[in-house]
Amino acid sequence: MLLSLVLSVLNIQGKFYRQIQNFIEILIMRIRSFLALVISFCITLAFVPLRTYAFSERGNAQFTDVVNTGKANDCPALDASLEGSISISNGDSLKGICMHPTEVYVKVPGSKRQKADFVSTKIISPRNNTTVTEVYGDIDSGKFTEKGGIDFQLITVLTPGGLEVPFAFSAKDLTANIPSSLEPGTEVSGSTFTPNYRTGDFLDPKARAANTGVEYAQGLVALGGDDEELAKENIKVDVNGTGTIKLSITSVDSDTDEFAGTFEAIQPSDTDMGSKEPVDVKIIGELYGRKA
What we know:
By secondary structure, the chain is an alpha+beta fold. Helices cover 22% and strands 37% of the residues. The protein has an 8-stranded antiparallel β-barrel with strand order 2-5-6-9-11-12-13-14. It has a 3-stranded antiparallel sheet with strand order 4-7-8, with no helix packed on it.
């Protein structure tokens, strides 16, 4: 009696174990293909090198590490030893173009003893917000045309003689001929549109503005308007200009299609809405960009 009971219990346990074993085998067969896919994906990731972009490193910075440090005004940087190349063809785009001014020169009027020449200046306003960045555009027929971005900054510099010179550092409507490849030593020249430092809605101390219907000082109209200098002060106009720019490539990362280098731009200064003659301003600084 006791022996029969023990045998029946062992038989039940054996059937239970066999059912569990059959269930595990069926489960493994069903997920075998999925496991093979997961393992293949992990092996692929282990052997494929990750592409690190200079701009992503900049974008991943913590706010507390950047605020009030001036780092937000810097352009992404590439290793100077990178000597790759980027092929350029019609239909391509460039984006993330960044130009950070590091030197600003103003052409002062000459005299009998000295000809007009550029003198070094100091940026006094704003100090940490001078960079043109995230500029992008398309390439067609071997020419790059700017389409948008943070493409101008208002800057004021101080000359050694104490003259404050405001100007609009601009990459607006940048057009330049682009070669079939970008590599160290490549130079690209083009032109830019330089907007007026102040808009037509700017109100001066006498509340005059070109777009508000009050463009002259009422009390000075009795002078008859014959004085050219007074007319320039009285009547406000928008005076835009054009500039030239040269981009010099010094390093190229072929893996990420990024390039870096320097730039040199010459643009007109502010005219105080037509009352002053503009002077030439030369801006030199760091360059960064990438192929879209």
